Amino acid sequence: VLACDGETREEVEAALSLATFIGIDFGTSTTIASRAFLDPVKRVLTTEPIPIPQMDRLGRTIEDHLVPSCVAWHEGKLLIGHGAAEIKPELSRDEDVWFSFKMELGIDLGPKYVRSKLNGQDGWLDIRRPQDVATCFFQYLKEHIEKWVAMRGLPQEIRYAVSVPASFEANQRLDLCRVMKRAGISVEDSSIIDEPNAAFVSYLLDTLTVGDGILKSFQDRKRNALVFDFGAGTCDISVLQVGCDSQRLVSRNLAISQFRALGGDNIDKQIARNILWPEIQKNCLGKEDHIRSVELEQVILPRLQPAGEELKIQCCKIIAARAQGGDLSIYRNSSEKVIVKAIPTIKIRDLCLELPEPSITLKEFFHIMEPFLAQKTDSENADAISVFEPIENALSKAGLARDQLDLVLFIGGSAESPLVQDAIKSYFGRFVECEIGPDIRTPVSRGAAVHSLTWNGLEMQFIHPITSETIYILTAGNVLHQLIPAGTAIPTPEVLFTDALIIPKDEQEKVELPICVSTASKV
User: Fold this and answer.
1) Cα separation, 294 vs 273, whole angstroms
2) DSSP one-letter string for 176-207
3) According to a count of CB atoms within 10 Å of the terminal CB, is the N or C end of the chain lower?
């Protein structure tokens, strides 16, 4: 299918004549949409990202395939994408700017944004839950994707696929589908593809376009690949086995990591909390001034986080440019300071908190990154989980040691960090090939576009999804009975239902069977 040979070409051409196949990588910080199509010159299957018009704070329109997953209400205007991200430091989170709402899907306890300026009154939008802002965001994407398709003269029937973290649980997947349907985007459970799998499909497609060398490399033996997808909200690990059977690639998922909210956002928060906030305390607060913990967590740190993100990005650029693949440790004790633009004044009661020159030294940045890159850690800080925890979790489920891997594929904005790449390469050793593409942000959306074509157009699925955790029945006394082991390809008819269950009383007409994922607490 990826090589688009023989009869498959005719099937692909027929499908593409009837519909336009779009894949959406809905990211915590950035969202990208791509289209799958046949290259008219090379006659090979390929993909392209779709430029989305976005208004900046001054009202100018720019087109970019990178769409920050951010929505803002500013001076009577709704900004989505670049403009919203641009003014994010000046606004109040969940009041007039909303971001990282992807990680809040799956739980609906009613209106969460109690201070929202868009509360449905006076005929304005109603944004009081994560689902509301996600719906608004997808409506914007859909509108501009449809305009782009019409301008290009492509088939008006649009079929979508969307990617999710492999470790996303059922409630999160279902909630995303509901949100997209509310936005007018028709997606089914089977239209979802795990982000690492989508990235791997894109990697295979890119490799096949330069020849069939990858086929030959898999003919001698099956190879194990680990996709390291480190974005803003999740560190998602997928382990796959790839082989070659009669000139065809055969791949299957072996394991995926347990869901943990670990991403670039966590690094930004640590910089805000441990570097920027102490500076504000030193410069702006007297001995008699006291900040309540709720003010710190809900008002101050969210306003400092964008500056933390920019400091992180600038530190990574400096280290990457100077080290150029060499020894990074020479910067570990560097006192060189990185400075970004001033943080707008934060008003708390009668206090005005200011930081005209947010800064961090390279030494401080290394110190912030240490717990995230520690191979062994006993840190109790929930915001500083090591990336090696999900890696080892996935390898354990796959029954593999680190030296049994053949390939590590880097995906996601946070994986661009030279410190992260260096730590991962050191962990796996020089005999494991590490692939870092020229653009590690678009492969997920491009793989999702291919999935849209193959599933919606050809009714084929490249890599079957698997259960991330074991699924149980919970019985009396909190006893867990295994139904489906972790790593089972789904859907599956193989359910280990036991006939040893008994009811607690005679003539009982009803029985309740709570289904749990991984632990008794996740019913």
Assistant:
1) 14
2) HHHHHHHTT----GGGEEEHHHHHHHHHHHHH
3) C
What are 242-264's pLDDT values in tens digits? 887 776 777 888 999 988 888 99
- 10 Å CB burial of residue 210 (0-12, 13-18, 19+) is exposed
Query: Alpha-carbon Rg of the chain, whole angstroms?
Result: 24
Name the one residue in this structure whose structure tokens are 């909190």: 478
Task: Take residue 22 and report the two structure tokens written for it.
Answer: 């779009």
Tens digit of pLDDT for each residue in 447-474? Answer: 999 999 999 999 888 777 888 889 999 9
Identify how many contiguous H helices and E strands the chain contains and give both numbers: 14, 23
Please state, in angstroms and rounded to a whole number, the distance separating the CA atoms of residues 162 and 451: 9
pLDDT number for residue 445: 96
Sign of CA dihedral 152, 156, 159, 164: positive
d(CA 404, CA 446): 28
All residues at 6 or more sequence positions from 407 whose CB lies less than 8 Å from its CB, including other chains: 223, 224, 225, 226, 432, 433, 434, 435
CA atoms within 13 A on the CB side of 507: 0
Cross-strand partners of 63 = 53
Q: Which amino acid is at 160?
A: Y
**DSSP string computed for 21-32:** EEEEE--SSEEE
Half-sphere exposure at residue 289, Cβ-oriented, CA atoms within 13 angstroms: 15
Pairing state of beta strands 433-435 and 515-517? Answer: unpaired
